[in-house]
Design a protein that fits this description.
5 strands; five-stranded antiparallel sheet; alpha+beta
Length: 142
Amino acid sequence: MPNTQIPRHIVVMLAVLALSTGGCASDTSPSPSSSPTEPAAEPAPVVTEQGGTYWGVYLAVGEESDLEDAIQYLTDERDLEAGVEFSIGDISCDEGAAEALGAAGTQRVAVYFISSDDAAIWAATLLAEPVGVVEVQTFCLD
């Protein structure tokens, strides 16, 4: 019977080859074009204009004292600037908001977006669920 023992240097080379290819004979590493993509950037709030139609994410609705936590959250945690990316004021300035939200107050804190998708994506990043996400027409801006 012939000797069928594989020489030690061949065994070592096969082991190194198996480790370097992850035990597979074919290359399974992703090509540069199939590399994982970066997560999409969070949608940016918009600055509203008189008579514009937007999707508002309402963080608080009520009286002035009911708005303090939402304002604190937006300025400290979300680092948004007052008067630019979020709005504080009378809910009647957002036509359709009071009815859609069943508002039990006259004041609101809202952040506005161009699309319902952007508003929903941004609302999903909040620590607490918003009062609602509503399409409105903005007034009281002049």
